[in-house]
Amino acid sequence: MDLKMLCEKMEDPDQIHYKALVDGFKRLQNSGSFTDVTINVGQKTFRCHKALLTAISSYFDTMFSSDMREKATGHVTFPTMDPDLFEMVLHYIYTGDCDLNTDNVVEILRISSFLRITSLQTLCEEFLKKHLSWDNCFDVFRLSVAYDCKSLRSKSADMVAASFKEISKSDKFLELEANELADIINSDYINISPEEAICDIVIKWIQKDESSRAKKAGILIDKIRLSFLKPEYLVMLREKQVFQADEKCRECLNDAIKYSLLPARQQEIYRRNTRHRIHADLEEVIVVVGGCATANPPYARSLRVICYSFIKQQWYELCPLPYDPGIEFATCTYGNDIFVSGGGSMQKSLLVMIQVKMFGLSCRA
User: Fold this and answer.
1) pLDDT of res. 3
2) 196 closest CA partner among 160, 236, 158
3) Tell me: the pLDDT tens digits for 266-304?
4) How far, CA to CA in Å, does 58 sit from each of 50, 115, 119?
5) Is 162 buried (19+), middle (13-18) or exposed (0-12) by CB count in 10 A?
6) Whether residue 292 is found in the same domain as residue 354
7) Inside any domain, residue 148
8) Hey, which of 52, 134, 148, 275 has its CA 20 to 30 A from 120?
9) pLDDT at position 262
10) Residue limits of the BTB domain (predicted)?
11) pLDDT class for 8, splitting at 50, 70, 90?
12) Same domain, yes or no, for 250 and 291?
């Protein structure tokens, strides 16, 4: 057998070391040798090793690194924790294995969050992400907020947003905390249009308990795409006492009114609240007007107008130019319309490309 074949048959040195460590930890757990701390959970007692506990749990690391009573006595008690589930968590600490299922994953997540075992919490997050459904997304989202599960929170929030039209009519919608509602209405995937309807839902939530919820108006108004509200609706919002009383609300509403009054400058302003949602009638695209149709002489100019959709990730053909403006023509935007002026062949021409629907432009010379 040559050296190459021998190397291919050998296990990775890191894997060999990892397997030896895990086998050793299992032996220590099963034998109870060299234990230096006792953990009482319900009616069960577990003999453990501080070094392993502190290596993976910042909760235990803090406990045994400070002058807490448990450090001195070597006894830890969790009177309200489920002993069987704690045993599963302890098995994970020693072996890296945890038999997650839909019945135990939520409680395992709670324990791993309490003990600050980040790696196990990540495993629980990934499990829940794979099992997200329209039936459980709302409860999973609230769970992810409670335990600061960032990736799960983002995915479940988008899923809740996609069914928010139905959720907003239910009683559980009114039970949301302000930061939870902010996450949902911040999502690009919210399935409610126009933006005024989303704002109406936020007002409904505030009015459920206005005396305590009014102070949260600022973090909510910041997540609404105010730039796409009708001017008269913006003025109506600004006159509401709940928004007048909040500095953040006043600032956001004034910025939105300025945005609506300056259509020629809108393309220069790009923030999250000036970005169209996925289900909106409009979206941001790149538009390419004219140019060369051939790469080599004799050069021919193109009348094509194409645009790229970031949502669909593909190019679309739009209405072509009605004539060849020649070289060095100028383009600019005003609101959602594109203006093409001048050019070597048509120096006194002006072409207006009017947006009429998604990826549809009508041309007017």
Assistant:
1) 42
2) 236
3) 666 666 677 788 877 777 788 888 888 887 877 788 888
4) 12, 7, 11
5) middle
6) yes
7) no
8) 134
9) 75
10) 35-102
11) low
12) no
Q: Are residues 175 and 238 in the same domain?
A: yes
Cα 21 to Cα 161: distance, rounded to the nearest angstrom: 45
> For the residues 117-145, what does the mean pLDDT come to?
93
- 77: part of which helix (H) or strand (E)? strand 75-78
Structure tokens, 239: 């006159």
Residue type, 69: R
- Residue-range definition of the domain harbouring residue 267: 163-279
**Which of 169-173, 277-281, 350-354, 355-359 has the weakest average pLDDT?**
355-359
- Looking at residue 141, its amino acid is F
The confidence score (pLDDT) of residue 280 equals: 76
The number of distinct structural domains making up the chain is: 2
72-81, Cβ contacts within 8 angstroms, sequence gap of 24 or more: 74/36, 74/37, 74/38, 75/37, 75/38, 75/39, 75/40, 76/37, 76/38, 76/39, 76/40, 77/39, 77/40, 77/41, 78/39, 78/40, 78/41, 78/42, 79/40, 79/42, 81/41, 81/42, 81/111
Of residues 104 and 74, more confidently modeled: 104
Q: Within a domain: residue 66?
A: no
* Angle, helix 83-95 to helix 105-114, in steps of 10 degrees: 70
Contact yes or no for 305/288 (Cβ under 8 A): yes
Question: 232 to each of 238, 256, 273, how far by Cα in Å?
Answer: 10, 12, 18
Give every strand in the sheet of 37-41, ordered side by side: 44-48, 37-41, 75-78
State whether 248 and 326 are in the same domain. Answer: no
Residue 58 included in any domain: no
Residue 246: CATH number of its domain: 1.25.40.420
> Which residue carries 């053909």 as its tokens?
317
Side-chain half-sphere of 37: how many Cα atoms within 13 Å? 20
Tens-digit pLDDT profile for residues 148-198: 898 999 999 999 998 888 888 888 889 999 999 999 999 888 888 889 999
